[in-house]
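S.,

As promised, the NAP run. Input:
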Amino acid sequence: MSLDGRIAGPGDDLSFLETVAGDGEDRDFDDFIAGIDALVVGSGTLRWLHGQGHDLPHRGLPIWLVSHDEALAARAAAADPDGTPVTRVEGELAEILDGIAAAGHARAWIGGGGDIAGQALAADRVDEVILTIAPTVLGAGPAVFDHPALEPRRFALAECREYGKGSVRLRWMRDRAQQATSFGR
Ligand SMILES: NC(=O)c1ccc[n+]([C@@H]2O[C@H](COP(=O)([O-])OP(=O)(O)OC[C@H]3O[C@@H](n4cnc5c(N)ncnc54)[C@H](OP(=O)(O)O)[C@@H]3O)[C@@H](O)[C@H]2O)c1
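Predicted complex:
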């Protein structure tokens, strides 16, 4: 995300990601993905990927596409029928995440966008947040948690380091114990 908490600029412009110089971070994504067993993604993010010539956000992990768009889901499901199952879901994020857990997936990556991440946080179903902050201010665009009515949520810092050259990696764990003392809930 940008310094001002946006995951894209106006018009779904992600060119700000070029300001992240990830030198020396080659294993970072591989290590992360090795600990994931499902991917949740919104249709806005998948449409952006299609516009960039990518048919799926990632291959080899079951994908839950949160969308009303059956044609979009059919296109994604056809992209890699042998290795990457795509399930279209809609409705309450908490129920969608319950369904993923019931299918046996313990660690789901909510890959975005801000709309989906915001709904998951509003339902208090985000346990860990991994952020890379780019050295850029965008001024407008979707927020990392893009939701109109979020309650305060307390997180505990688990990691804070320079990422590549000039960016920052932060990792936060949901702190439900501290939440009770800091916000009274
Ligand atoms: N910087 C980053 O790391 C990063 C990461 C991810 C995404 N992005 C960018 O963020 C932008 C997209 O983010 P976004 O927040 O606009 O979109 P998004 O979260 O990817 O998708 C939102 C869309 O998903 C569908 N949807 C949302 N909630 C739903 C629900 N409960 N049930 C059924 N369908 C639901 C709706 O579309 P339909 O009903 O029409 O399907 C909605 O418009 C893109 O520019 C993308 O490239 C950036």
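The beta strands are 38-42, 63-66, 86-89, 108-112, 128-133, 155-163, 167-174. The mean pLDDT is 95.

- D.
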